[in-house]
Amino acid sequence: MDAPYFNVDVAEEPGGWTIRFAGEVDYAASLDLISKLEQVTERCETDLLLDLSKVTLLDSEGIKMLMKVWGRMREKSQHARIVSCSKAAERVLRLVGADDLLGMANGIIHGA
């Protein structure tokens, strides 16, 4: 069996929870990730930080998944925001206008 072309690491840290995405965040990845992300947003009682610095591809389903995370956190009066982003992911997020919602307008650290 081939290794997945994406990875997600969830860390509960003092300043909030962090989700670190790596690889291709696309339709196939979203099928595997959505239930894990639902669990995280359900359990997280602080702000949720999104690290996209190792993302090599972000498609419309990946954006949809990130927006679901943002929406679930907003329903709880919490925030989900990007703290680090690859150039590839940033380009797509800015193109569709999701950069402002996900906190990229405040300045981010660039990864790969």
Molecular structure report:
The chain has a single domain (6-110), classed as 2-Layer Sandwich (Transcription Regulator spoIIAA), CATH 3.30.750. The protein has 112 residues and is an alpha/beta fold. The longest helix has 17 residues, at 27-43. It has helices at 27-43, 60-75, 87-96, 98-101, and strands at 6-13, 16-25, 48-58, 80-85, 109-110. The N and C termini lie far apart (27 Å). The radius of gyration is 13 Å and the shape is globular.
Tell me the layout of helices and strands.
Blueprint: E1 6-13, E2 16-25, H1 27-43, E3 48-58, H2 60-75, E4 80-85, H3 87-96, H4 98-101, E5 109-110
Parallel strand pairs: 2-3, 3-4, 4-5
Antiparallel strand pairs: 1-2
Helix pairs in contact: 1-2
Supply database-style keywords.
alpha/beta, 42% helix, Transcription Regulator spoIIAA, five-stranded mixed β-sheet, 112 residues
Low-confidence stretches: none
Assembly state of the chains shown: single chain
Number of individual domains = 1
The rounded distance between the terminal residues' Cα atoms is 27 Å
- SSE ordering: EEHEHEHHE
Main sheet makeup: 5 strands, mixed
- In CATH terms, the superfamily is STAS domain
* CATH topology heading: Transcription Regulator spoIIAA
Radius of gyration: 13 Å
Regarding CATH, which class? Alpha Beta
The total of helices stands at 4
Which CATH architecture would you pick?
Answer: 2-Layer Sandwich
Helix content: 40-55%
The secondary structure category is alpha/beta
Can you count the beta strands? Answer: 5
* Bulk shape: globular
Write out the strand line-up for the largest beta sheet, numbering strands in chain order: 1-2-3-4-5
- Give the overall average pLDDT: 87
